[in-house]
Specification:
By secondary structure, this protein is of the alpha+beta class. The protein has one domain (about 5-115, about 120-280): Porin (Beta Barrel), CATH 2.40.160.210. It has helices spanning about 5-10, 35-50, 135-140, 190-200, 205-210; strands at about 15-20, 20-25, 55-65, 75-85, 85-95, 100-110, 155-160, 175-180, 220-230, 240-250, 255-265, 270-280. A twelve-stranded antiparallel sheet has the order 1-2-4-5-6-3-9-12-11-10-8-7. Helix 2 packs antiparallel against helix 4 (about 190-200).
């Protein structure tokens, strides 16, 4: 495991303060608001630590309430709503300065068999034939040490169709990107579940802005994640290539709706995500 990935994995484990109370910190360091994927993953980590080892998370539904302060820790309060024979439900509240900044509800299930079907994974360029997104950004900026809107050092993102963040071109509301942790992670399934939650917040909202030629670096653009839904369908490893197939079906009232399907290299649909984001353009 690389040093940067190790630090990210550790930041998603959380410090347990009490039976249902946890504390998390921001990593990598950021100069602006807390990355939404961080609170998604940390809240999932808190909930996982309060359920039995025989149950795995299968869904998460979350609302982003306030921007998090990256210089301060985040406290996570877990409400153990229910433990049934097959399912457990947990509600998590993320708090900074005595204010709720994020809330999430998660469901856990005991493993069982059943009927199966899935969408077919699109045929796309394999990741080995694609340039790493951070390398691409440095190249088009003549080697300058610039970063994308996300700090991706511990992660490897390789977009099928690259975007120029400074001069975006209008295009269809669809996007595809390969992603994985940049190193070998522990075998603990919860580490991979929380890491995928972290990664699932990447590229979603930007897809709804593609038809309008908007990018995160536009100084007149205000963006914010509003809510996020995540479903896990099957087992996976976050340190192996996963393909994120994203589309936006609607934008209206300054909001864009985005849907993503996450496939393993061999075409298994292992997770689905839905997010609505706010984007406003000011004069």
């Amino acid at each position: 495991m690389t040093e940067s990935l190790g630090k990210l994995v550790e930041s998603l484990r959380l410090e347990r303060l009490d039976k249902e109370l946890f504390r998390g910190h921001t990593w990598p360091p950021r100069e602006y608001k807390t990355f939404g994927g961080q609170v998604l993953a940390q809240s999932m980590s808190a909930a996982i630590q309060t359920v039995g080892d025989d149950r795995r998370v299968h869904s998460q539904h979350a609302y982003f309430l306030l921007a998090g302060d990256t210089s301060k820790p985040i406290i996570y309060e877990v409400d153990p709503i229910r433990d049934g024979k097959s399912f457990s439900t947990r509600r998590v509240l993320a708090i900074q300065d005595s204010r709720a900044i994020f809330t999430s509800v998660m469901s856990f299930q005991v493993a069982e068999g059943g009927f199966e079907h899935q969408d077919i994974m699109p045929e796309v360029t394999p990741p080995e034939e694609l340039e790493n997104d951070d390398d691409y950004i440095r190249r088009i900026n003549n080697g300058a040490e610039t970063k994308s809107c996300l700090d991706t050092l511990p992660l490897d993102f390789r977009s099928v169709h690259k975007k120029d963040l400074d001069n975006p071109v209008k295009g269809p509301p669809s996007y595809g990107v390969w992603m994985r942790a940049n190193g070998i992670m522990p075998d603990d399934p919860s580490a991979h579940e929380t890491m995928l939650a972290y990664m699932s917040d990447s590229h979603l909202m930007g897809t709804s802005m593609l038809p309008h030629g908007l990018g995160y670096r536009n100084p007149k653009l205000l963006t914010a994640s509003l809510d996020h839904g995540l479903w896990y369908h099957d087992s996976f490893r976050a340190d192996e290539w996963l393909y994120y197939d994203i589309s936006s079906s609607r934008a209206s009232h300054s909001r864009g709706l985005n849907r993503g399907s996450i496939y393993t290299r061999d075409g298994r649909l292992v997770a689905s995500a839905v997010q609505e984001g706010l984007f406003r353009l000011y004069d």
